[in-house]
Design a protein that fits this description.
Blueprint lengths: L2 H49 L11
Length: about 60
Amino acid sequence: MGDTGLFIAGFLITIPALAGIVSLILAAIADGRENDRIQARIREQENAGIQAGGRSGDGMKE
């Protein structure tokens, strides 16, 4: 296999690998955003419980 063949083989391997890496990065970003939404909802629920006079936390504190 000549230099051109090696270049083409490397190129054909690199493109799908790059697509996989990009998709993993985008999935991690989406997961982080979803985690931020969940954490914000939990904080809102805890704040609503505190404002309503309820207890907040895991129930272990007295």
